[in-house]
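User: Fold both of these, please.

Assistant: Here is the first one.
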Amino acid sequence: MTFDRRESRVGRRGLMSLAAVLFTAAIVSSGPTSLAQIPVPSAPPGPTGVWIDHTGRGAVEIAPCGQGQTLCGRIVWMKAPADTKGLPLLDGRNPDRTQRSRPICGLQIIGELKPQRDGSWDNGWIYDPEQGESFDVEIRLRAPDVLQVKGYKGLKFLSETFQWKRASAAPQPACPAA
């Protein structure tokens, strides 16, 4: 029997190709359950969650609300939720006199934010209990832990922009749920 080097090379290449096919077949036949075990980096978090406001004196939880895809926010923590007498701070500057007796801690201050094509949330409102005034608002995630909050009255170039930081844990003690 004669040994042909050319057949030997083709034989080795053939074995390598066969091994590659078998390896690929083994992966494919293992099904999606095996592939699901491979860790995949998670998508960056959206604007939902608990955010410490720009003053550091309050935290707002932003979550889905109402019908459809809108976001709302309510105060879930305040550094000083009570006045000097130990009574809860009230919404005393609200232009609606009937609302002035409600506590600020637990108050909804953001509403009706709608998703925009550019990734922001806009066409909603934000209420500032310190001023007793509502503004149009746009929020935009600037980093996984930084939320840009832009309050404006009709025209965005006449706006005030703040940076809120994502809370690493729910601040305590929490405001009572509304």
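And the second sequence with its predicted structure:
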Amino acid sequence: MNKEPAIVTNMNPVADGAELEKAKPVITVEIIEYVANSVVIKTILKKSSGTVSVISVDTGEGITERTTPFDTFVQVIDGKVELVISNKIHLLKTGGSIIIPSQAPYHVKPDGRFKMILTIIKSAYE
């Protein structure tokens, strides 16, 4: 049974909390929809060792500046995004990816609709 995605106005790292059903194939870009004037987050996996989430961002929306204590792997799966990491702009298009270093300030500049996967692996050794 799929749970409806949570809608948030400014990205909250804990939005829906439910994982996808295990051992069931999905088309990742289709498990989350665009919602007008919103940022939507769907959890793929959530473990004490890290999370994998898919996020959709509607035109005109962005993600405010934040940092994370762990490296974050970003994969764009639809559209394009201007990701600013430590004041340097990175333009990523569908299929592009980048690692946001731990403790680096980052934000997303609004530049049309996009979907991305965020993967965070927590490590006690970092």
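The chain has no helices and nine strands.
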